[in-house]
Amino acid sequence: MYINFNVLDRQFQMYRNEYTEAAIKTLESGCYVLGRELINFENNFGSFLGRKYCVGLNSGLDSLTLAFKALDIGEGDEVIVPANTYIASVLAITRNGAIPVFAEPDQYFNIDAENIDRYITKKTKAILAVHLYGQSCYMDPIIEVVDRNHLLLVEDCAQSHGAGYKGKMTGSFGHISCFSFYPTKNLGAFGDGGAIVTDNEELDEKIRMLRNYGSRIKNQHEIEGYNSRLDEIQAALLNVKLSHIYELNLERKNIANRYLTEIRNQQIILPEKREDTDHIYHIFVIKTKNRSGFREYMDKNGVSTQVHYPIPPHLSQCYRYMGIKKGSFPITERFAEEIVSIPLYNGMLDSEINYVIDIINGYQ
Ligand SMILES: *Cc1c(COP(=O)(O)O)cnc(C)c1O
Known about the structure:
seven-stranded mixed β-sheet
């Protein structure tokens, strides 16, 4: 027995007929970009989140990059971003020429919402709230700081499709909220994809132009745009998956609940679920002191593990020019040394879940 970290064809097999029908229908339609399937998906995903506008894009990174561009955040502007995040959150800021101001996390791995004030300066323009691993940031204090300082709020919901906070979904809080549909995400496509949602008509229009060569009318280029479109096949497949997102998230929650109740090992610290949040367990992240020893043991016993993420953005080679020294963000850096993610995916068999639990419980 070897348990892979993720087995993506399992979630395809769950709704195989619906996916193949949608794909073939799109192939037969003769329209492969900017067609009916995209409009359908944008309408469906927008109403799923209760937002007025949704723009389908080609990736999560582009959704974040175009969000800051549409908000006119650039040269000299500061954006507060969690130090504990995936590199894409930070790339979207620096690719616009803006300055990332890193903020330490709380014990739930998300930005420490109660202590954001200390990162505010005259140059602060926005806060990027990243709902990491499938759990919402604690939004009330963040929204309070945003309102009090007249800032913009952008959400990175790449790991939180359908996750909740006090009865509202992540993606319903930001001036712009950004999503990725990378295949491993909870709402994953069968290739790359992304989207933004907003309630602001001007921002919607601007991002629509930016994704299509800066053009509203064919061959008229009002602004310097990009090619960041979500294609018809991905949109058609995402429409199918979106119709099953509740049960897909529920399956992940059920696996997570088994891990939370059945993993019992002094060496392992389980993730904490925060009050007021509805966690959809994009990734199940545990902590252990001797991580390399643990990972070696797991691998030898047939369970694959991963680390999300071993090098925090501020210590990444590409950002060496910022001159941020190791030790500058001790909480983030300690997480990076102790966290490890265990297999949790749609279509995981009971026998596989049992096996993971038994192997972890046997670790000494
Ligand atoms: C996956 C991810 C992204 C980037 O999405 P892509 O579609 O891979 O470009 C951004 N932020 C976070 C937190 C992610 O997990």
